[in-house]
What does this fold into?
Amino acid sequence: MKGTRKIKKWLGLNEQVFFKNLPYVLFLTALGFLYITNSYYLEETVREMDAIKNEINDQNNEFVITKTAVSLKGQRNEVVNKVEELGLRESKKPPFQLDEIKIKADRKSLED
It folds into this structure.
């Protein structure tokens, strides 16, 4: 008992000091709790951001791969090879633009 009194006296603790500083101690405890809670929330948010960033990178890689594949399949020689399998061949005549006058003349000749 004397040992605890000596320790209390040495630390300056008695019932009046304890109850006088109790609101301050509770305030510091609440701040510590909020600090710990906020750090856990922040770590979870950072993990979610990293996961989303990785997902965006994966989607971007998939887009580039798909775009490259479509680009390769759309090249002239690939299209010609696929069309030849269907029995079609490339036209020897170059493409031309239809004039409005020719279209009207063709319609009149069909009507006659």
User: Anything to note?
Assistant: The chain has a mean pLDDT of 84. The radius of gyration is 42 Å. The longest helix spans residues 15-73. The chain has one domain: 2-86.
